[in-house]
Specification:
Blueprint: H1 2-14, H2 33-36, H3 43-64, H4 72-79, H5 91-99, H6 105-112, H7 117-154, H8 158-208
Helix pairs in contact: 3-4, 3-7
Length: 218
């Protein structure tokens, strides 16, 4: 998930068509992963992400074990630690970690208080999976929708965006061709020098005779 976001952001930064474009949801700050997880324009979306992830995980837990005493509100505070009033500053860190497919040891330890090791491992895997799906649904897709509207207003077409990528790729190809050509030239030059040294050595043997100290190698 993060890779897709970073690639898109990189292309936007590299493409002069987007030089003046700020975050599409708040129109105030530059858009990067640190901003997107705390952007006020995405907060409603994250509320939906948290609710959907918690509901799906709770449903799985109830299906997997009937003996657990964990309740949905408690589960939400475990998965999203910043929901606990004692840890409000964990919001950025927790969301970034989940976006990157990571989950803190603290969350795992808290889950183990209520669940078996086997169920906990499955829950952790499902948290990441459900978070990524919900992130795309409630955060990324609305953001892309706003980007499409902006591109239409700016008159940016798919061809405009593709031209930037292709010209960059062409430049890389040209550099590779130059490097490969230079490598071939270097090899040919080495062969010529070696043959010349060998020829001179043979000529020296014929005209002057061999000498222990002589060598055609350079």
């Amino acid at each position: 998930m993060e890779l897709s976001f970073l690639q898109t952001s990189y292309l936007r930064k590299r493409n002069k068509l987007y030089n003046q474009v700020k975050c599409l949801m708040c129109l105030h700050d530059n858009e990067d992963i640190q901003h997107i997880v705390i952007c006020p324009g995405h907060e409603d979306g994250f509320q939906q992400v948290e609710s959907e992830v918690t509901s799906k995980i709770m449903k799985f837990i109830k299906k997997s074990t009937s003996s657990t005493k964990i309740v949905q509100g408690q589960l939400e505070r475990i998965i999203f630690e910043y929901k606990d009033e004692a840890f409000p500053l964990f919001k950025e860190r927790t969301r970034i970690e989940l976006t990157r497919g990571l989950i803190s040891d603290t969350i795992i330890i808290k889950l183990r208080r209520f669940l078996s090791k086997k169920v906990t491992n499955e829950v952790v895997s499902r948290i990441i999976k459900h978070f990524h799906k919900a992130f795309r649904k409630y955060i990324w897709n609305p953001r892309c929708y706003e980007l499409n509207i902006l591109e239409a207003k700016l008159g940016i077409t798919k061809k405009d965006k593709m031209n930037t990528v292709r010209s960059h790729s062409c430049s890389i190809s040209q550099q590779l061709d130059i490097q490969q050509t230079q490598g071939i030239l270097d090899k040919n030059e080495l062969v010529r020098e070696t043959l010349t040294c060998c020829k001179n050595y043979i000529h020296s043997l014929i005209t002057k005779g061999s000498s222990p100290s002589q060598s055609w190698k350079t």
